[in-house]
Amino acid sequence: MFQQLIDGISYCHNKGIFHRDLKLENVLLDENGHIKITDFGVRAVPQHFREDGLLHTTCGSPNYVAPEVLANKGYDGAASDIWSCGVILYVILTGCLPFDDTNLAVLCRKIVKGDSPIPRWLSPGAKTMIKRMLDPNPVTRMTVASIMAND
């Protein structure tokens, strides 16, 4: 399932489309085991970029939003989608969210710090991938290409 998600996101990114609200609830599974990525309501297309080449709209679901989106200083849509995919992978493997709190301000602080415990029982490869996808620094965060190379 996760590989299909990355393939779908890669396709979108190659077409200049950035989802910006990826979450497990927006990834549907059909009767043949194929995923469908849904809810492109806040997607970004090339016309949405400012002169600096970045997106500036704060959007997304709180538990899945990347720290750079919260910083409100402009962000790369691809890196932000990868963060959300990292949250999805974490949920698929553990059954819980990596960043969660009933207080939105506390949740945002956890996300910005990238402070999430990774269960010891996950495989070393899964731990590494999650850490690299949930890197608070979008410049050093794993990319679609590096994820596909690691499959």
Helix content: 40-55%
Shape: globular
CATH superfamily: Transferase(Phosphotransferase) domain 1
Radius of gyration: 15 Å
The average pLDDT is: 85
The number of domains: 1
Order of helices and strands: HEEHHHHH
Would you mind describing this structure in some detail?
The chain is mainly alpha-helical and 151 residues long. The model has no long low-confidence stretch (mean pLDDT 85). It has helices at 2-14, 67-71, 77-94, 104-113, 124-133, 144-150; strands at 27-29, 35-37. The chain has a single domain (2-150), classed as Transferase(Phosphotransferase), domain 1. It has a two-stranded antiparallel sheet. The protein contains six helices and two strands.
